[in-house]
Design a protein that fits this description.
The protein is of the alpha+beta class. Helix content is 45%, strand content 14%.
Length: 311
């Protein structure tokens, strides 16, 4: 209700009793735009990713302070300490009280290959505006993997590559072939444009390695969800690299929230009901099999304990 009051002479605030008027102005002073010096240092700077891509923090709204303010519905900063703010943020994330984190919003400018973009847009809780191949002529910019990133198909992961890269000789040949296919595809695209074909049609045969750009805006809660998935070792390396750069930016905007996310999100592991019972059995001196774990389920449980990774 306070946030609807009119300020200035004759406004709602002027008609309040002295004590309530003080609360009103303290509230609005506390909820002014958050300025974070560490974040201001990197605004509009391009941080390179892959061979031609980048991430740029265009703007941010809110900070750790906004999270604790919205959680407390605060009427002022009062005598809160850094330790108290950190404790509250950790409590919120640990107990999945995530709406205060949605008070923080970040806008990024990203240049990325289309095959990365297609994975990225699976996260539908953001707002984006992408360069249009109908209005603009696409640039002659394609991603070619580095030699150390070229590997054979994994034998046990249907959507991933092996850890061992191809031999330098084979990697060199494949890179050369990829560059040649990309060159011919762009020449064909340019030729169709020169013949007067509409841009929306000429672009059809351009490959997934073509770079695109977009503005991408998302709140902190959903950004953390995006990062939890895209920083996971199972995610494709190319999108993980974007996630790493973005998370470094988020640390500057909200260092306490990022610390909580690392503690309970990235660095945490969840257990099923039977896995939890297996932990209880082990603490009591028993074996995990006593909880009914066996086969693949038992293997995943032991791997969680060994690696600290979600399986």
């Amino acid at each position: 209700m306070i946030s609807t009051f009119a300020d200035g002479p004759g406004g709602d605030a002027a008609r309040l009793p002295v004590l309530e008027r003080s609360v009103f102005f303290r509230y609005h002073a506390a909820m002014a735009r958050c300025i974070v010096p560490a974040a201001e240092e990197i605004l509009d700077r391009e941080f390179p990713v892959l061979d031609r891509g980048f991430v740029r923090l265009v703007d941010y709204m809110g900070s750790d302070e906004r999270i604790v303010q919205s959680a407390r519905v605060s009427y002022g900063q009062g005598t809160r300490s850094y330790r108290e703010d950190r404790g509250l943020i950790f409590y919120l994330w640990r107990n999945r009280h995530t709406s205060p984190f949605e008070q923080v919003v970040l806008t990024f400018h990203v240049k990325l290959p289309i095959f990365v973009a297609r994975q990225w847009v699976r996260h539908r809780t953001a707002r984006l505006n992408e360069v249009s191949g109908r209005y603009s002529v696409m640039k002659d910019e394609f991603h070619v993997p580095a030699p150390e990133d070229l590997a054979a198909q994994s034998a046990d992961n249907k959507q991933g590559r092996r850890e061992e890269p191809l031999s330098p000789e084979e990697a060199g040949r494949i890179r050369q072939e990829m560059e040649e296919v990309q060159r011919r595809a762009y020449e064909h695209y340019q030729g169709l444009l020169d013949r007067g074909l509409a841009r929306e049609l000429a672009r059809i045969n351009l490959p997934l390695g073509l770079y695109t750009e977009w503005y991408w805006q998302i709140d902190l809660h959903n950004l953390f969800h995006f990062l939890a998935l895209r920083l996971d070792p199972h995610a494709q390396k190319e999108i993980r690299l974007y996630g790493e750069v973005m998370f470094d930016m988020v640390r500057r905007v909200c260092p306490l929230a990022s610390e909580a996310f690392e503690e309970f999100g990235l660095g945490g592991v969840s257990f099923s009901r039977r896995e939890f019972r297996a932990l209880q059995a082990m603490l009591a001196g028993g074996a995990p099999e006593e909880a009914g774990l066996s086969g693949k389920e038992l293997e995943r449980f032991r791997e969680k304990l060994k690696t600290g990774k979600q399986m």
